[in-house]
Amino acid sequence: MFHNEDILARLRRGEKRRDIQAVLGVSPKTITTVRTVAVLHGWLDLAAELPDEETVDAAIAALKAEKAALKGNKTPQVSLVEPYRDQVIEWAYKGMEAKTIWTALVRLHQFNGGYACVRRFVRRVRASLPDPAVRLQFAPGELAQVDFGSGPLLLHPSGNERSTSCHATRTPRLFRVATASTA
Predict the structure, then answer these.
(1) Consecutive 10-residue runs of the chain (183 residues): their mean pLDDT?
(2) What pTM does this model have?
(3) How far apart are alpha carbons 176 and 125 in whole angstroms?
(4) Domain boundaries in the chain?
(5) Which residues in the chain belong to E strands, given as ranges?
(6) Residue 115 · residue 99 · CB < 8 Å
């Protein structure tokens, strides 16, 4: 188990993060947190007194609580694509790719956002669009579906394996026809 006080002492001696990580077996994030707290409280100064472990732990807990509070207070960011929302939704519904939409926005509206911004927006739009499934209906016998595939090798009475087709490749092929019904 590591002690934040040990990390702080090593930081004060000027050891690199990777060296501390290797010796103590702690994550880089932990070292960064201790360094941030030490800089805020002036503990990296060799003239300053080294705090005890409880003080360091309390300062780290306070920093984490402050970060958590700030994280919860974030206001949602509005996409740069939002002013063109209706046009982008229409293009996405028609099946245009995000790159094409971005190019059109730049050309038609002097859009100054990046392609990634448009790509994220289009991904969210497409997730909310209904699935374009079309049910086809035909009278019985009016439609046939053909599937091609490979069949198994059959054992010939001579003991050799033979293909189930008469192609030159000697690879078995199957041909299946299914007729549609309205049932």
Answers:
(1) 77 89 88 88 84 84 82 74 92 91 94 93 85 73 68 75 57 58 52
(2) 0.40
(3) 40
(4) 4-72, 82-128, 144-179
(5) 144-149, 154-155, 161-162, 174-179
(6) yes
